[in-house]
UniProtKB/TrEMBL annotation:
Gene3D superfamilies assigned: Outer membrane efflux proteins (OEP) (1.20.1600.10)
Record family assignment: Belongs to the outer membrane factor (OMF) (TC 1.B.17) family.
Name this polypeptide is given: Outer membrane protein TolC
Keywords: Cell outer membrane, Membrane, Transmembrane, Transmembrane beta strand, Transport
Entry's localization field: Cell outer membrane
Primary location recorded for the protein, binned into one broad class: membrane
UniProt-listed InterPro entries: OMP_efflux (IPR003423), TolC-like (IPR051906)
Amino acid sequence: MIKKAIILTAVLLGYQGYSQSKLDGYIETGLKNNEVIKQHNFDINKSMYALKEARSLFYPTVSLNGSYTVAEGGRTIDIPIGDLMNPVYSTLNQMTNSNAFPALENQSVLINPDNFYDAKIHTTMPLLNFEIIYNERIKNQQTSLQKIELEIYKRELVKEIKIAYYKYLQSIEGIKIYQDALALVKENQRVNQSLFKNDKINRTAVLRSDNEVIRIQANLETAKQVSNNAKSYFNFLLNEKLDSNIETDNNDTLPIDAITDNTQNREELLKLTQVKELNETVDKLTQAHWFPTLSGFADFGFQDFDFEVNKDSRYYFAGLGLQWNIFSGNKNKYKLKQVEEDSKKISSQTDNVRQQLLLQFQVSQNNLKSALEQFYANKNQKESSKKYNDDITKLYKEGQAIYIELLDAQNQWVNAQLNTNIALYNSWIAYAELERANATFTLKN
């Protein structure tokens, strides 16, 4: 009882681990090969590029634009140059007694220019645009959110790999127990057949021993199939061939690593915190629609008729553009109301998840305590059933016990071994669940 109390206390206050180098290697392989993790990494890379795209909006945009037009007909601009200048020219001719100033005709110019080209370098740049600023922040927060989601999946995968590993160890140990039990009942079968031939016992004991051999053989076959299934599932988690060989560590110790409540650092809460910050940025983005946007532009190029290029063809054109939304039918107001409701929802979810995580930790902790208690109870039963089986076996060989007593003692011994094996690895499974509930496992980047 003292030893048991020390062990149970160590679950919360002490540390005594054992080397799990092979399991650690399998965890590393599983994290490396898992297809879902690869897909998460693709999404993160995509988000990083989206973030770079958002940041690129702060830089100027430069483009080369060109156009050439041919026109005939359509609207015109009438210029009465003849009506304006001909009286003046006539007076000048009379004064100079010459025809130095010929008469001019009124002009009609097409609005659409004919045989006209325009080639320019067009540059634009945002000078004041809060939408771009908050959009860049949103992309950055979305990237962080996806990284947190990846951490959550990794922790869940580590837990599943550990549980699958322990179940496989549990299954192969079960096979060993049944193999030893089969050798034991076959020896009983041989002894009973010999005693029956010598008229020491009746045929009932022989038939019962034959049935025991068949029963243990069937249980052994079932245990092998369970082990094969456990092996396949473990390899599935590692993304390896389902029949790949699994190397195991010798493990007959108990999980008594110290784990105290650390649920406040769970990634699930960090995710909700990130979601809350993201929602706050969306709120600022929505409010930014009330602010003006200012941008600048500049053109430098050539334009002329008949593809002429000279100093008069060159031009530049620059300016500022201002846009300020005055009224949009209360659209932004209702958007802000939606963001406010999302904020209330996130706060409610955070409180609920915090309680769920704490409950998960406490339940996992209690399950580990219960598993350890069960292991020690089964271990004591195993030790007593071993002594009882040895005593009955000796008495049976001396003819002082009947076969039913021997069979009962052997069944107790086999069942005690199986129960102890199950309890041992159930303790490790409970520990893996507690480790997950507390986010204790150290993930490598």
